[in-house]
Amino acid sequence: MTPSDAPVFSSSEDLTAVCKRLRRDIVTMIAKAGSGHPGGSLSAVEIIVALYWKVLHHKPADPTWKDRDRFVLSKGHAAPVLYAALAECGYFPKAELDTLRQIDSHLQGHTDRTLTPGVEMSSGSLGQGLSFAVGAALAGRLDKAPWRVYALLSDGECDEGQTWEAAMSAGMFKVDNLTAIVDNNGIQLSGFNKDIMNLYPFPQKWWAFDWNVLEVDGHDITQILGAIAEAQQFKNQPTVIVAHTIKGKGVSFMENNVEFHGKAPNAEQLAQALKELA
Amino acid sequence: MAEEVAPREVYGKTLVELGRENPNIVVLDADLSPSTMTGYFKKEFPERFFEVGIAEQNMIGVACGLAANGKIPFASTFAVFAPGRCFDQIRVSVAQAKLNVKIVSTHSGLTVGEDGASHQALEDLALVCSLPGFTVIVPADGIETAQAIRAAAAHKGPCYVRLIRGKLPIVCDSAYRFEIGRAAVMRQGKAATIMAMGTMMAPALEAAAALAQEGIGCRVLNMSSLKPIDGIAVFNAAVETGAIVTAEEHQEHGGLGSKVARLTAKHHPVPMEFIAVKNKFGMSGKPGELLVRYGLTAKDIAAAVRDVVKRKR
After folding, report:
1. Tens digits of per-residue pLDDT, B265-279?
2. CATH architecture observed for domain B4-169
3. What is the pTM of this model?
4. Contact state of B71 with A124 under an 8 Å Cβ cutoff
5. Which residues of B are catalytic?
6. Which of A116, A220, B45, B313 is deepest in the core (most CB within 10 A)?
7. What is the topology classification, in CATH, of domain A15-276?
8. Within 13 A of A65's CA, how many CA atoms are on the CB side?
């Protein structure tokens, strides 16, 4: 089914180094913008790197290549991690990361498909991405297309009813060309999920909606790749990978800190973060 | 009495024709296909029909995913549910993302009837017209419905087509050609202009006929293309007839009257009256009874015309 065995974009670089570089880009661009969401960007770094470096068939020089795998960032506030990856892959010059959230920039505060090369769908209003991904998967199936659909959700956005409407329909439609990954960092804007709106038992909820459910350490690229490989082979059900992550991962004072869900680091904090990510 | 046709019946059959002509036409419904008449499409093209259950937010999102990948999705339900139930999905996933999604709501306005206020969308046009890039069409009869659905399918970009539950008398002749952005002159006259759409088209023509007996000749415009609105037709009506009455089965706020008033206020202010629902919810009742109760009849339109004509300078 796949156009080739290896992703079109490939790099032999050590992915640990790539992850560190993306984390530096994330904190730097958010600090420069003066606002943004570092916590949920940092938690998703390994997931994004696994996808863009090892899984997705994509061509940075041809963002709308018809046989590309479709990646949908449903947690749109994590735009910085996607922008960092897209720039690193060559969709646009890295210097443009400095324009994040500024007027007339094509790097909007939340992703916008009409402005940024490589961005599949606009987002920012939580809970909408999985529905789009289901529609994309249905279109791919109608066309007997070789590409697959991957969607990255936050755990917090699973508070939204639409996520479960989409989950229900994906199970019903048996879209096995769809893989959802949940960045399960346990924190939402105003506190820990378990205190704001408890999603427990989380993997069981997906199972109940007729999904194939896998769980991984979301900071272990080998585990992520293993789960995605399993999802690609799984038939008649969509797969969800619940990726257990740490919000703010990689920057000590941001890790598991609700405060850095949606706050930019100041100059001093940026310097400290970059030191830790060196 | 003119022949009466249910626009939603025409919609269902037009979808089947479009489906035969274009393999990229797909249809979505939220457990209302026997009412929205998308059931015809479902029967002929089961693989291109997606039943999402009672989940309108998801329906819109799924339609977006299909549209972004080359399909032309028609998503149908009642107007209270789309745009009513899923406005944010229409705002962010459809309009802001500029996706080629067609939303066709088959039950709108007071004429939904006995189901009552919860089912009578009177604000749907205000909602969709507020979104940049949306095309909004309110066909006046079965003939125009078929053409409007085809125009929506051919148009690149988000569209909302507002239909009704009941039947409408045929008001367009066989030579009628619907065009997005153009109002159609249904009757010529110089004393005032009646601008109507959808359900109010036949009463507008009836009012004009009655007024002609009194020597008040009215121009009647079919404003089925609500967005983009035909600004030139509105301007010409203001300049050439000097008085305007709008008629719509919708809240006074945010529909046809608001749009026309904004245009005339800017370019050529004239006396105006607004036949619309005045800041009230609907209620259960027979469609005809409700139109009388809420002041949406030919008699109400005629009275409004006499009033604006008196106020002309």
Report:
1. 999 999 999 999 999
2. 3-Layer(aba) Sandwich (3.40)
3. 0.97
4. no
5. 56
6. A116
7. Rossmann fold (3.40.50)
8. 20
